Amino acid sequence: MFSSSFWRSTGRFVLCGGVALLVLMLFSEMAFAQEGEAAATAPSKKKNIIVHMIESVGWVFGPMILAISVALVALVVLLLLDLRMSAAIPVGFVDDFTDTVNKRKFKEAFEMTRNDPSFLGRVLTAGMGRLQYGLEDARDAAVNTLESIKSDKEQKNNYTAVIASIGPMIGLVGTVYGMIESFMALGESNGAPNAQALAGGISHALVVTLLGIGMSIPAIFFNAFFRNRITRVTMDVGHIADDLLTQMYHNSKKPSAPGGTSLPSGPAGGPASVMSSPAIGTASSMGAPAAPR
Question: How many CB atoms lie within 10 A of CB 94?
Answer without folding.
Answer: 15
